[in-house]
Amino acid sequence: QVQLVESGGGLVQAGGSLRLSCAACGIRVSFNAMGWYRQAPGKQRELVGQFTSSGRTGYADSVKGRFTISRDGTKNTVYLQMTSLKAEDTAVYYCNVVPGVSGYWGQGTQVTVSS
């Protein structure tokens, strides 16, 4: 059974930084295409950063240059370092494989950026 547990969210002022963590059980983050998604109120869930199965990274245009995805195979954890945060980054952030599998969604972690 796959379980993905996100943490690290919180309230931060615009321009600040946060690092999100996604601890995985039942799946090896080093051997799968993993991604960070977010869903803002009233909007669809979107993919913001990902590792492809070959290990390359990719980002949504809205976060490129500000967010960095990384992973630690020994801890089986995926991270999202977020800098220069903006009010429009406010959302619940989730991790999942890419493309997302419905049964893998966790509770997510709330990120709120105050302007």
- Strand-residue proportion: over 45%
Order of helices and strands: EEEEEEEEEE
* Terminal Cα span: 40 Å
Which value, in Å, is the CA radius of gyration? 13 Å
Compute the number of helices. 0
Average pLDDT, to the nearest integer? 96
Reconstruct the topology from this structure.
Layout: E1 3-7, E2 10-13, E3 18-25, E4 34-39, E5 46-51, E6 57-59, E7 67-72, E8 77-82, E9 91-97, E10 109-114
Parallel strand pairs: 2-10
Antiparallel strand pairs: 1-3, 3-8, 4-5, 4-9, 5-6, 7-8, 9-10
Structure commentary:
With 115 residues, the chain is mainly beta. β4 (34-39) and β5 (46-51) form a beta hairpin. The chain contains no helices and ten strands.
Write a short abstract of this structure.
By secondary structure, the chain is mainly beta. Helix content is 0%, strand content 50%.
State the main characteristics:
about 120 residues, 10 strands, mainly beta, 6-stranded mixed sheet
